[in-house]
UniProtKB/TrEMBL annotation:
<dbReference type="InterPro" id="IPR005123">
    <property type="entry name" value="Oxoglu/Fe-dep_dioxygenase_dom"/>
</dbReference>
<keyword id="KW-0408">Iron</keyword>
<dbReference type="Pfam" id="PF03171">
    <property type="entry name" value="2OG-FeII_Oxy"/>
</dbReference>
<comment type="similarity">
    <text>Belongs to the iron/ascorbate-dependent oxidoreductase family. GA2OX subfamily.</text>
</comment>
<dbReference type="GO" id="GO:0045543">
    <property type="term" value="F:gibberellin 2-beta-dioxygenase activity"/>
</dbReference>
<dbReference type="InterPro" id="IPR026992">
    <property type="entry name" value="DIOX_N"/>
</dbReference>
<dbReference type="InterPro" id="IPR044861">
    <property type="entry name" value="IPNS-like_FE2OG_OXY"/>
</dbReference>
<dbReference type="GO" id="GO:0046872">
    <property type="term" value="F:metal ion binding"/>
</dbReference>
<keyword id="KW-0479">Metal-binding</keyword>
<protein>
    <recommendedName>
        <fullName>gibberellin 2beta-dioxygenase</fullName>
        <ecNumber>1.14.11.13</ecNumber>
    </recommendedName>
</protein>
<keyword id="KW-0223">Dioxygenase</keyword>
<dbReference type="InterPro" id="IPR027443">
    <property type="entry name" value="IPNS-like_sf"/>
</dbReference>
<feature type="domain" description="Fe2OG dioxygenase">
    <location>
        <begin position="168"/>
        <end position="296"/>
    </location>
</feature>
<dbReference type="InterPro" id="IPR050231">
    <property type="entry name" value="Iron_ascorbate_oxido_reductase"/>
</dbReference>
<dbReference type="Pfam" id="PF14226">
    <property type="entry name" value="DIOX_N"/>
</dbReference>
<keyword id="KW-0560">Oxidoreductase</keyword>
<dbReference type="GO" id="GO:0009685">
    <property type="term" value="P:gibberellin metabolic process"/>
</dbReference>
Length: 353
């Protein structure tokens, strides 16, 4: 049997490298410096000793696996994802597909309790696991954003965290389930006229199985401020520090993987980088990731604090915009499209003042 190997897709390079691992229980000023360095160099880092309780994580993970184990017809009752709800294979509205099924939820408690009725047979238990998890990861995200402001010497230490603490914050929680290959083959047409499984494994050459790699969630950057992601012990996440180069991120269920979103790149005037990443599906094992996307209220105006408009960029690199405007642009584009560039001030405009 041919199995998914880490063979790079043609013209891609796989580079071995470990992401910075930051111990949040270390000395505060040291931690803030390490976070700033990681955000400038990679846009990604892992945090350990993060203070989110194992019990809160375990409850959320259990609810996620319980939901994804349901028969398709039951899961579809929580769909379609428009953009929130249950989705399978289709990502967004513009034709992106991947070997993934997911639940996308707004983080406000009222919307969670309403949604949970279509998601779980015990909606109260589901709601309580989700709200408990969101509260804990939002707290972690705020702490990290405060450490970033400190490390950047921005006097208003809550300048970033305030946006996701706001009651009107447009933050999301996404549970992604990447089924193993055998489950995907089971779901396909098994009639005699259809292809046999072994034939499929050898010769499938569309975007889903490419040199042994099945793309679960295609290349993209996250549009929001900050993403806090946790997965089970099955790998798949890869980051792309430069075009055509992919760095696999080793799974660690006790850590959170944190990444800079497009808005934080804009609010740090390009000092922090929102880096493209993707997730591959594993051949044998189910991968489940849980991503918290910290976002501001829709009307929030995105501009860098004045302390960050300094050399080498003494003008704002991006024109001011609202999250509503940016989100609308993101939703109108394909997953892999670069959107922040559309908001960049032209060099001539900067010279003109
Ligand atoms: C194809 C798309 C899916 C996405 C909205 C978009 O038009 C482009 C950005 C995508 C993304 C990536 C990160 C998050 O998973 C997400 C929820 C987000 O905010 O932006 C998804 C969007 C989605 O799945 O609706
Ligand atoms: O599943 C993963 O590890 C990555 C998911 C992701 O990038 C996303 O949901 O935006
Ligand atoms: Fe992402």
């Amino acid at each position: 049997m041919v199995v998914a190997s880490p063979t790079p897709i043609r013209s891609e390079k796989i580079r071995a490298m470990e992401l910075p691992i930051i111990d949040l229980s270390a000395e505060r000023s040291e931690v803030s410096k390490l976070i700033v360095k990681a955000c400038e160099e990679y846009g990604f880092f892992k945090v350990i000793n993060h203070g989110v309780s194992e019990d809160v994580i375990a409850k959320m993970e259990e609810e996620g696996f319980e939901f994804f184990a349901k028969p398709t017809s039951e899961k579809q009752q929580a769909g379609p994802a428009n953009p929130c709800g249950y989705g399978s294979k289709n990502i967004g509205f513009n034709g992106d597909i991947g070997e993934v099924e997911y639940l996308l939820l707004n983080t406000d408690p009222l919307s969670i309790s309403q949604r949970s009725k279509t998601i779980s047979n015990d909606p109260t238990k589901f709601s309580s696991a989700v709200t408990g998890y969101i509260e804990a990861v939002r707290g972690l995200a705020c702490e990290i954003l405060d450490l970033m402001a400190e490390g950047l010497w921005v006097p208003d230490r809550s300048v970033f965290s305030r946006l996701i603490r706001d009651v009107d914050s447009d933050s999301l929680l996404r549970l992604n389930h990447y089924p193993p290959l055998k489950d995907c083959l089971k779901d396909r047409d098994t009639s005699p006229s259809s292809m046999h499984s072994h034939h499929l494994l050898h010769h499938h050459s569309n975007s889903k199985i490419n040199n042994g790699n099945r793309i679960g969630f295609g290349e993209h950057s996250d549009p929001q401020i900050l993403t806090v992601l946790r997965s089970n012990d099955v790998g798949g996440l890869q980051i792309s520090p430069e075009d055509g180069v992919w760095v696999p991120v080793s799974p660690d269920p006790t850590a959170f993987c944190v990444n800079v979103g497009d808005l934080l790149q804009a609010m740090t005037n390009g000092r922090f980088v929102s880096v493209k990443h993707r997730a591959l599906a594993n051949s044998y094992k189910s991968r489940m990731s849980m991503a918290y996307f910290g976002a501001p209220p829709l009307h929030a105006r995105i501009t860098p604090p004045p302390e960050l408009v300094v050399v080498p960029h003494s003008c704002s690199l991006y024109r001011p915009f609202t999250w509503a405007e940016y989100k609308k642009t993101a939703l109108s584009l394909r997953l892999g499209d670069s959107r922040l560039g559309l908001f960049r001030v032209q060099d001539d405009d900067q010279i003109a003042g």
